[in-house]
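Review box. Two proteins, two foldings.
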Amino acid sequence: MIDSSAIAHALAEKGIVADDSQQRAIDTLCALLYGKRSEAVKREHRGVYCHGLPGRGKSLVVDTIFALATCAKRRIHFHQFIRDINRLVVQAPRSDDRLGDVSRAWLDGVDLLYFDEFHVHDIADAFLIGRFLETALESGTRIVLTSNYAPRKLLPDPEFHERFEPTIARIEHHFDIVAFDGPRDYRENRVESTQLRYFSPLDGTREALWTIFADYEAQAAIHPADVEVAGRSLPVTAAGKQIVWVDFDALCGTARSHLDYLALAERWRGVILDRLETSMFRRRDVLQRFVWLIDILYDRKHALFIASDLPVRAALEGLEGAHDVSRTTSRLAEMQSCGYVIELERAHRNSHPAVAAK
């Protein structure tokens, strides 16, 4: 049983005193994990679906409770899930329900599944996630989803939305729906930075980027090269053990997918994104790749350093043409804040005790 004071204390350490919608989510999540409900009700409601605008504390609240939960649990981000399940389906033996077989094996031993940043924009992903959720509910797995979208807003493309409605109905039937509708954007309120991470204009940024690279790489040297990422060649300015330095056009301006960014994040803890010409955001494909990149780096609390011709967050304001741009601007704010826990900096402190002592 999670003590309510433990939740309040853990949130207070992150600068949060729960507002009304966050408290509803806390109560609902605790009921899912520890509520004394009848077996009939338990069979009906096996999950909690938290949705709302970016930065309203969905992941902060759920991450806090998930960390305190003592059951067998698993947390996964949408892009990684889609990649991993597709790989498993390809490798699985043929059967009448290969996706169901893979889903049951994937869920084996998982009592609580936390699916962060749940969204559905692609019809192929819709079929996969629909069958997976059906299997998970049948298996008795308790599920928590966080999303920027209310259930009825999932897969908004009118050409395909109707085909996803059975899954939406399943979510509405089996999940308690909690809207995070507080006025505060927690990411926008944490923008003070102990280190400058975004640089503009481009003139004169190379020295600053070189200093950043040298801070994290003991054998720092500029060695332009081509490295392999997700089976494809990526030209880089420099690549160390912790951080990779790459031009924006090479990473987001050419034909790449979230698979490239997952592979990149699994290999390096930080990215220096150089020579970003913000006019390229007018291309829908480029903008979407940038959104994917930020999603994946943010989920892992990896470091991001940007050199651009204009301030990048201002350049994104009001842009359309890609999914979830508002979430990206909100995340970029947090990623330069002093409250953002960066794996790269943690690893650097652990390997350099003198730095941690400062």
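Next protein.
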Amino acid sequence: MSNESTIYRLVKPEESLSDYVYCFSALKRITSLDNGIIIPNGRVDLIFTITTDQQLRIGLLGLENQPKKVNINVSAFFAVNFNPLAVEYILKDSIANIRNSGKEMPHDFWDFTFEDLKDFDAFCEKATHKIQTLLPEKIDERKQKLFQLIFRSNGEILIKELAERVHWSERQINRYFNRQFGLSLKTYCSILRFQASLPSIKEGELYPQLNFTDQSHFIKEIKKYSGVSPKELYKNENDRFLQFLSYAKR
């Protein structure tokens, strides 16, 4: 796959959805990608694809805590990239059983059709309207504040401090994470720190920009979640780290 043939777009949600939606994203002009690698991003992706034989498929991907190889054979790929809070309050589900995997959704999920994947702006508008109708009347403020603190710090906050600031015990928080998402809070925070490192790596800065213990720890964590060293990730040969194409240093 070539960068020159691929169109990537990312649209941030309206402020009213920011607790639940990280962004809407699209990849177009993909014909095939062999031996691609999906790396953990700390988001829950609801994906809408048109296959090369012109079929609409809708899937929900769970959180990843390891890289996984994929073969993609689609002509269009739109997604709602949810923050984890949306699992309980928008999707009203648990994704613990699809960690590092996913599940197919009903073909008429949210009333999306083949036609909705012809125009990304219209897709975003329709998805926004649907999510607005699903917004909860009440939300557990501990969970809302918990995720706000985690995202604001890029996962670089002690679990003990989180528990104290949201008035929720460490044990209860971890029970919630494992039951709802299939991984611990500590793991989730390390995934966010990994993600926060990617813009710098893309710029060729192959040393820690965040609170890693040392260079060795930094390399170990990048390998853990991408499967390769920071240097190899920076090269991104054959554009196999598809998500990596979207990162730009802030």
